[in-house]
Structures are given as structure tokens and as C-alpha cells.
Amino acid sequence: MLVSETKLKSSNQPTLRRFAVAFASLGAAMAVARPASASVTLYGLMDMGVDYVSNEGHGASLKLTSGELQQSRFGLLGTEDLSDGMQAIFKLENGFNAANGALGAAGTLWSREARVGLVTRAGSVSLGLQPASMVDYLGKYTASMLVYGPAYYSAHPGNYDRVLNFPISNSIKYTTPLLGGFSASALFGFGGQPGSITAQSTWSFGVGYDQGPLSIGAGYMKVNGPIGTAGILASTANPFTTTNANDALQTYGVGGSYEIGSSLLFALFTQAQFRDADTKARTYELGVKSVVAHFWTLGGDISHTDVSDHHAHLTTLSVSAAYALSKRTDAYGTFAVERASGTNIDGTPLAAQLFALGAASSGTQSVFRIALRHKF
Fold first, then answer.
1. What is the pLDDT of residue 263?
2. What is d(CA 355, CA 67) in angstroms, rounded to the nearest whole number?
């Protein structure tokens, strides 16, 4: 009996070896057939600090706030090689209030970005909730979109020129590859209105040049439909206009930056115009950010907006200083002041209102902030 069992085991060994070799060969073939690599990255940041506002409503205020240099956020970024120079990509990004845990946009989980796309040698295509092409090519020349700097307090009044990123939903975007420093992009946001392709739709284009220390960009965007100011500007601080369902906003701009050692100089011009009311808002911005002694990042910015219809003039000056405690954590302080003159849409004297704050009771408003930011 023992002999028989031994013979049986011995006779099965070549078969087992052949099966093992075949299985290993199949696994190797599958490994070759699979994409070379795929990855998913979890990332985010938290920005928390104390603000002192000189005039908000009818007096000063002191409060703990989240996300004034950068909005507190977390996200998922994924890539997968599809061979032949092609990649699948996706990005999901959520904005939230770190002070109370609330979503950045009520009822919306991925309020900052939610897109999927393909990257090829001929360029990239992405679909979903994503920045307009104009933001891609002009955002780098405004302090409100810089990673270091006065950030949101320096945003242009009401963000009517749309340079500060308000992502476009239901959109498709194509971006060319970088060719000799040049690139371009086009976006269309579907309005989804039965019987009309253009109703509630968004068009945006951008072109830029980045080579060495010099960067230049231009962008255009048209938004069809009403352009509201809810949550951005109070009526007392709004020098623009009310709009209707058939109105459209057209905005464009040009900007540039130049690196000199550890300093970045930037400039931007934008114009926003409402089709029906023919209201124009022109903004001029100049700024600088510098890295000093490897640990300090200093920023300064000034912008001026003219709205001729209401003889309105709004000037915002902002400065900031950030100290790097590590590669991921920094402490910073920022100060901004806005002076406004002219009349608002109600015909009364225009009040000042820095972005993300309540309107002042007069034409001047300032804010000082000390905060901590951690990236992960």
C-alpha cells in the first residue's frame, strides 16, 4: 500500500510541475497585458485662524474662521497607464469648513472638482465639474489663486470676472499638449435646457506661454443666464447690476508673471460685461511674492476696479507673511483693506466688502488674520 501511494505521488509530480509552469506563464502574460501602473492619492489641507474685522455690519468682529488663505479641503487624485502614451485620470475634491465640519457647498460632497478624463499625446479631455479654461490661464496671475499670498481677501469685488475659481458643472474640456512653451484649452458647459443648446451654457477659452522665468496668458468666458451675487456681495456693496434669465456675462483678461531669483512679479487686467445692462467692470492688479531665507514667504498685492455705470471705484490692498514650520505646515498672517466710492445698485453710497466677509457700514473695511495651515 505504501509503495502504491509512493508511485502515485511520483507519477503526479511532472503534471503538477507542468501546471505550475503554465500558471506562472499565464500570470506573467497577464502582467504584461495589464497597464504598467495605477495610483490613487489622498491629499488635502486645513486652514484655520482668527480674524479681526474692523467694520462688518455696524461694528468690529472677532471670529475663528476656516480657509481664508486656501479653502480647507480633501481630495482623491488617480491615474492609470493605458499604454501607448495614454493615461486615464480622475480627480475628486471637497471643500469644507474646518471650524464646524460643514460642507463647503450645502448638499454637495465634491464641491471643488469632480472629473474624469484621458491624457494622450494629442492632449487631454476631461468631463465633469472642473475649472474654466480662463481660470487655468489667468488664475496664476492673481493673488486670490496663489498658494501663498493674501488669497481670498484680495479677490476682485464679487468675483464678476470669474478669475477666482468657481468650477463649471456638466462640462467637457480639451487642453493641448505643451508645444515650445505654448498651450491652449477650450471648455463647454452644457446648459441642459430642452429646446436650446446655449441656454444656461458656459463657453471658455484660454491660451498661454510658459518658458523659463516668463509666463503670459489670456482667457475668455461667456456665461449664459442670470448672474447672481447671493453669498458674494450684499446689495449695499454691489456696484454692478441685477440680471435676468436671458442675460449673459462675458469676461476676458490678459496677464503675465516674471521670476527674478526667489521673487515672482505678476500683473493682470480683466473686463466683465453684462449683455443686457451693458454694465462693464474693469480690474487692474499688480502683485509680488518672495521667498526669504528659505522659511519666509512674503506677499503683496493691489487691485483697482472701475464700474463706470455707477461711478464706482474699489481699491484693495493686501499683504501677507508665512513662516514654514515644515514642508507641510506653516503659520501665517495677512492684512487687507478695501476702500469703495460711488453708488451701489440701489443708488445709495457704495459700501466696502472684502470677499467672504459681511458688508461694512461705510466705504472702508479691513481685516487682520493669524492662522495655521497644514497640508497632507
1. 96
2. 12
What residues contact residue 320 under an 8 Å CB cut-off, 6+ apart?
A: 69, 148, 149, 150, 151, 298, 299, 300, 332, 333, 334, 335
The contacts of residue 227 (CB under 8 Å, 6+ apart) are 160, 243, 247, 249, 274
What is the distance between the alpha carbons of residues 103 and 71, in angstroms, rounded to a whole number? 11
Half-sphere exposure (CA, 13 Å, Cβ side) for 104? 20
| Domain parsing of the chain, residue ranges | 1-34, 38-375
How many Å apart are CA 367 and CA 61, to the nearest integer?
A: 9
Q: How many CB atoms are located within 10 Å of the residue 62 CB? A: 8
Phi and psi, residue 293, nearest 5°: 55, 30
Per-residue pLDDT at 58: 82
Buried/exposed code over 319-352 (b: 16+ C-beta within 10 A; e: otherwise): bbbbebeeeeebebebbbbbbbebebbeeeebbb
- What are the C-alpha distances in Å from 227 to residues 125, 244, 317? 27, 8, 26
Contact call for residues 171 and 314 (beta carbons, < 8 A): no
Contact 163, 249 (CB under 8 A): no
CATH of the domain spanning 38-375: 2.40.160.10
Q: What is the DSSP string of 157-182?
A: GGGTT--S--PEEEEEEEEPPPBTTE
Contact between 274 and 312 under an 8 Å Cβ cutoff? The reply is: no
CA-to-CA separations, 21 to 9, 371, 374, in angstroms, rounded: 18, 61, 51
Is residue 92 a contact partner of residue 117, using CB atoms and an 8 Å limit?
Answer: no
> What pLDDT does 232 receive?
76
Spans of the chain below 70 pLDDT: 1-36, 147-150, 227-231, 242-245, 277-278
Give the integer Cα–Cα distance in Å for 126 and 173: 5
| Residue found under cell 501663498 | 148
Q: What is the rounded distance in angstroms from the CA atom of residue 153 to the CA atom of residue 343?
A: 22
